[in-house]
């Protein structure tokens, strides 16, 4: 996993380099102070992550990010700035994170961990051990048995993963997360839900020939959408 840093303040750039080198496995392949030079570089070079200041010479960071959002293969964008007012605009163009200066060490470390986990999961490396998976809770990586997952629910740009007693988050869409799970165990029963088939206790007929699912040790009922009923019935031999 590689990155470039786009930052025209020397001390801020050196501090960020320190964090990246000491608290991640991300390789720094370029440093830039000018927005135009960044766009020229990206025409011929593939980058996984861009740490991007907003107030730089040439072209400001938000404009650069809008250009990058049109790429067929988009790098992750982490804004690094002293200004809060661009945060909404940053997330409208699906920035990975928005880090304020002066840097907070705990915040930086947490962002780097999430960045690496998201990258690895999208490269098909989420299952670090055959039947285990890395999930997030309170900025900690929790190694979890896949068997312990009861269901997953889409939460905006993240996926909430629920076990018997805990809930965790993965910074991936529910479609991306579903691709990492074993299909013999998990089923995408609804556009917003994935269910662990081994945890189903009751199948309840519902409106429009659909079903609701009651799971062992879970109070919430999980819907099966009409578009997924046929496949679900085949899987469950109904």
Give an overview in words.
This is Stage 0 sporulation protein A homolog. The modification 4-aspartylphosphate is found at residue 53. β14 and β15 (222-224) form a beta hairpin. This protein starts with a strand and ends with a helix. The protein is an alpha/beta fold. Helices cover 29% and strands 31% of the residues. The longest helix has 18 residues, at 105-122. The relative contact order is 0.09.
Task: Please tag this protein with its features.
7 helices; elongated; alpha/beta; five-stranded parallel sheet; 29% helix; 31% strand; CheY-like_superfamily; five-stranded antiparallel sheet; OB fold (Dihydrolipoamide Acetyltransferase, E2P); 238 residues; Rossmann fold; 2 domains
Low-confidence stretches: 125-129
Helix content: 25-40%
Number of continuous helical runs:
7
Mean pLDDT: 87
From the structure provided, what is the oligomeric state, counting identical versus distinct chains?
A: single chain
Radius of gyration: 21 Å
Q: Sheet with the most strands?
A: 5 strands, parallel
Strand order of the largest sheet: 2-1-3-4-5
Shape: elongated
Secondary-structure element pattern, one letter each: EHEHEHEHEHEEEEEHEEEEEH
Question: What's the CATH H-level homologous superfamily of the largest domain?
Answer: Response regulator
CATH topology of the largest domain: Rossmann fold
What is the strand tally? 15
Strand content: 25-35%
CATH C-level label of the largest domain: Alpha Beta
Through-space gap between termini: 46 Å
> Number of domains in the coordinates?
2
Task: Label the CATH architecture of the largest domain.
Answer: 3-Layer(aba) Sandwich
Class by alpha and beta content: alpha/beta
